[in-house]
User: Fold this.
Amino acid sequence: MIALKEVRKEYLQPNGERLRVLENITFEIAEGMFSSLLGPSGCGKSTILNLIAKLDRHTSGDILVNGNKIGFVFQQPRLLNWRTVTDNVALPLERDNSDKRGRRELAVKYLDLVGLSGFENYYPLQLSGGMQQRVAIARALVIDPDILLMDEPFSGLDEFTARKLRQELIRIWRETGKTIVFVTHSISEAVFLSEQILIVSQKPATIFKRVTVDVPYPREYGDLRLFEIETSLTRDFLEMNSER
Amino acid sequence: MNTIHRILSIVSLVLAWLILSFVFSPTIVPGPFAVLQAMWENVRSGQAFYHLYKTLFRVGFGLVLTMALGIAFGTAMGLSRRAEVFLESWVMVGLTLPAIVYSIICLLWFGLNDFAAIVAIGASAFPAVGISIWQGIKGMDTQLVSMGNAFKLSKGAIIRKIIFPQLLPHILAAMRYALGICWKICTTVELIGMSSGVGFMLNYWFGLFSMSQVFAWTLLFLLVMFAIEYLLFKPVEKRLTKWRNDVPIPLSA
Ligand SMILES: Nc1ncnc2c1ncn2[C@@H]1O[C@H](COP(=O)(O)OP(=O)(O)O)[C@@H](O)[C@H]1O
Ligand SMILES: [Mg+2]
Assistant:
């Protein structure tokens, strides 16, 4: 479970002033759930994710994270270009004292899961953007995390590739049952993927609304129920912006 | 394809030399045959090996000192803002003073010996290396470091597996460049204060106005440089950068 209670985050700016990015963030995410943080660019979604991953410290409030292993997928693949695909995926395993063979085997298994078998010995620069992002997903999964944090992982990709990867992500999630927190600024992406959507408001950020998407998986693109939820979310967004 | 171009490039150089030697008298531009003959004499008498060894010894240790100082300064400046401010003026002074100044000072301080030569080389060449490493660290992808943090890699692992590999091409490029500078400074030091080495021999034959010998020693010097480039640097670089897509920049015709 992930629970944030009245979390506030301020950044110290170069001119000495404090910039309040998160005002009063409170939400709960149950184990095994697929949740999205949805909001406009610059509203503080990445900041929330970084706080959950303990990459940054919050100013006040409480953050509770149950589950000790966290896998992180960034907006850009962030691969080590000088390592092969397999060695990239094996990177997070290297802190354990496991043997090299075992690490490689595990990496190859997860490359297969993301549909990259046959590319084990390629270097990242020899792959397309979509394939690189799959490698990044395999790297996050290889540690068998309890929680998977994804920060706009598909926003740099073309829509066809992104659609395919979304469907694969849902498949992997349903196979592994991990808790996923997915950050996006795309309403349709959030609706297609999530069981619950947390709408993050613009500066300083609060959780404007929590929406559950009660449509069973596997979902289809063009499903009318999804479309309706999208429309009502768009209305919420307009309302949220006019309040400010 | 590449080999043909390389051979063509060398052949064109020799040809240009040959033509120049016909245009000018042998006391100004001696021809390739006279020069090769002089070189052969030096090799047979063992002179070539002795002086080359002395120069290589000084350049080798000078290069080690250069890289050590350069990497230390560059890393400090790249990682710490305070070190950057503090060391910047040092590096600027080091970069501005002509190598001959260091050579003279070192020879006066330490005497006419190898140690003085090595210190002079290190002092003159390290600022360029330092700046290159410094820029390398500044231009590093910090997002990769935060990726390492997200996956809970230790500080040591991040330095070894994420930071160092990004710096390696810079270190290699700096080393190549530094080798060229070290050679030049070494000959200068040998010319003004040593009684051995390629620089000393150049000066010696200069005194005797033997152009073919001056050319012979220059050529020897060049050959050794080529050997180091093609037998050492190129293969190492190729190994280290095999992950790069080896395609030329696609400027359309
Ligand atoms: N390290 C930082 N120092 C100062 N301000 C920051 C820092 N990181 C983010 N911010 C600011 O916090 C706000 C939210 O950033 P972010 O969480 O990246 O937004 P999002 O991911 O929703 O696009 C932005 O206005 C950004 O300028
Ligand atoms: Mg962001």
Q: What stands out?
A: Chain B has a mean pLDDT of 89. Residues A 11, 19, 21, 39, 41-47 surround adenosine-5'-diphosphate (ligand 1) (CB under 6 Å).
